[in-house]
Each structure stands twice: as structure tokens, then as C-alpha cells.
Description:
Glutaredoxin, 28% strand, 5-stranded mixed β-sheet, 5 strands
Amino acid sequence: MANDVIAEITDDNFAEEVEKNEGLVMVDFWAEWCAPCRMIAPAVDALAEEYRDKGLKVGKLNVDHNPQTSVRFSVRSIPAVLFFKDGELVDQVVGAGPRAMYEDKVQQHL
């Protein structure tokens, strides 16, 4: 689900992609079988595109393939969107919501 705007986040590259990144990183914890994850995907994609040059990095982490990071951040329900600023967890949204809810969080932390 990663593309030229959205990074694929894994257990192996989490430190490099998120923790060592200066600025705001939004990580979408998802799974292929998760219908609510598919529901929020267009909003995540749109925010990645709209804010790519405004200081936001967006990544997706498949919880089925990357259990260590999911456990580390106590992700028990998906979708879960976690926000990291300068490598530190600063906010999160659990469950599907409208684009405006995620965008509010982005604007709050940029």
C-alpha cells in the first residue's frame, strides 16, 4: 500500500523512517482484512499528498507483517493512526473517522 508519497513502515525500518525523522510522521497501522482500514485509506492518501511539502511524512505499517512495532505501541485495535513528532509519540486516533479528524491532528502538530 506504499507509494511515492507514502512510506512502507516495517519493524526493521521503524527507527530510520519514524524515530530518527525530524518533523511530523503519521503512521497508519492497518491490515488487508480490515474493512475500516480500507475506509480511511483514501483520507490517509489525500493527506499524504496534500501535506507532503508542508512537513508531514506519512507511512503505513501492516500489523500482520510487523507485530513487534504493533506490540511496542500497544496497538490492539485497527485502524490506529499514530502521530510522531521528532521521533516521539505525540497523539493517536483509534478507529475509523472522517478525514477532518485526521487533518485536525496533523494541523495541531505541524
